[in-house]
Amino acid sequence: MPDGSLHGPSLASIGARKGRGALSNPANRYERQSTVAWDDGWGTLDAAFAAPEPLATTLTRDSSRSAMAWNTSPDIGFDRSINMYRGCEHGCIYCFARPSHAHLGLSPGLDFETRLLFKPDIAALLTKEIRKPGYVAKPVALGANTDPYQPVERTLGLTRQILEVLDAHNHPVTIVTKSAGVTRDLDILSRMAQRNLVHVCLSITTLDPALARVMEPRAASPTRRLAAIGELSRAGIPTGILAAPMIPGLNDPELEHLIDAAVRHGATRAGYVLLRLPLEIAQMFEAWLHQHFPDRAAKVLSLIRQTRGGELYDSRFGKRQSGTGPYADLLASRFALALRKHGLDRASVRHQSLDCDAFRVPAAAVPQPAQMALF
Predict the structure, then answer these.
(1) Looking at residue 112, which CATH number applies to its domain?
(2) CA 350, CA 344: separation in Å to the nearest integer?
(3) What single-letter DSSP state applies at residue 325?
(4) DSSP character at residue 299
(5) What is the pLDDT of residues 308-324, one digit of tens each?
(6) What's the predicted TM-score (pTM) here?
(7) By three-state DSSP, how is residue 90 classified?
(8) Alpha-carbon gap, residue 192 to 237, rounded angstroms
(9) How many distinct structural domains can be found in the chain?
(10) 354 three-class SS
(11) Could you say which DSSP state residue 220 is in?
(12) 156: in domain
């Protein structure tokens, strides 16, 4: 007779899969029902736990009617962004965007990194939006939610299409990515850089390739990301490093080394963000930590709570990016010292603005009065 015992918290929680970050597919928080794994007495779960099946990536067309998303958050330096993809195959376990998949009726876990949505008409939508009367150009962020250069970009090329539109309109743009694939668009980016229309930032969390493979299984290796900084910088494109997230007790000892390495490759700006664990991510991250780093899981979780007022996350504006308490303050001091060491704390470096005044609609796209056809 079945004994009713559970072999894990959910049906999908059956251990690490090669090339995937999440260990499970936690229930969508908006669903009223959830499932658990039940031992039927025939050893079926034992087999599943021993050899988790690989999961293929699927693509679904996104029928969104707008290209840009708008925000009023005081924690970020832009008011508009473009997300050509929903979900991200990089599989970073800590990704703060994971909970957004619940709005699609999907799980923030394995669904987020295997069931992707893409917007095939996004370039046309963007063109229509920025040509509306009264539109005021300000820097638009690519990579605010999911990575614009995740693996699927190699075949769909939606990010390149967006850059072509922005380039044609002299529209400023900022890019954050974990992929060396950004160098595929070096031709467009270098043209835009000559007109002060683009900043690029490579997100690098560790210099240890083994740690990177576990945290970010399908992102470019740290070596390739550093090489991308060098290639972009040599092409005259302002490029920086985002050391994010810094995970207390796991990768935060590398903060200074990350900035040193990036500067050696040509980075002219730097930033960091403390680990954020909103909603479902907290449980997923904790399970991942015990799976991959059982010897230090308790210490890491304790340090995180020390930076979040005793909890795993503090969502308050002004606090969620940097945390609070002595450990968070020490991290901030270390970062400030690293900036001073390399001269990255100067106002002229930190606050260099992109050109928002050069925006224009190409003349060929502007309808001419009928009488002009006579000349």
Answers:
(1) 3.80.30.30
(2) 7
(3) S
(4) H
(5) 999 999 999 989 899 99
(6) 0.88
(7) coil
(8) 8
(9) 1
(10) coil
(11) P
(12) yes
